[in-house]
What does this fold into?
Amino acid sequence: MPTRFEYAMWTSLDDVGTRDFPPGACRKKAIHFHVQPCEFWHQLTSPYFQANMSPDSIVQLTAAISISLCFLEPAMPDHRAAQSLQERRITQFDELITGCRLILETCGKPKFLESIFVLWGQLSQALYLLERTLWPEQRPDTPLHLRLPNAPRPLGDLLLDAFTPNIQYIYNAINALSTFHTWFTDSYSVELHSDFNSVLEDSILIFRSVETLLRLKQRYIARAPRDPAIDLDPPEDTATGTTEPATGSAPPADAPAPEGPMELLSDTGTPLQWY
It folds into this structure.
């Protein structure tokens, strides 16, 4: 008699995984998991999560991991091309996971970031499992834990100077997420996998909102007036006993206002739109 975790694994792979997988390696991967459900599940989560996750959550997690592994292990007749594509996709997954982690570790896990948290967990589990499969003798590099703040923080905390070094990671994550979502919609039925598709679409909206905030900050910094430095200790003229104004201390003439509306461009060069 299978446990409820084994039953959830089999149900998800029979109803979600094998019927809608692209031909080739994806179906074979589902059969591999079907044969060893307990080993697969124990590789993914700790006993704490096994005891606290609902069967529906387990099914959704399993389906998301199966889909992610199909993306990470492309089936192509040319093995060299398949390996090259796999390396690029692993890099994209790592960039996407990093972007989610940076947002969560800055703002915590408020309700409005639930999709980002779910996406981070699902993709991290998939990449962690792939590392265990490809390099069983090595410790996986993908972390499965977050260092969250003590209390949820507003999204505006991403505009603080402490987050500035991470801006490019967010842009990389957006490109990776767009690539993954396009592949997913081309390969799977969004009606059948509506839960996973909703997570991806919500995450795209959040990332685009973050991108708009960060680019507004960068544009503001780039267009902020830069007055010349004022010498607070000007040299004294020994002959007259007076002080001379420092060079460049005169107020600059007002710069003309830029013509036309300010246009923000995304990392791909396309104009950003307000949501």
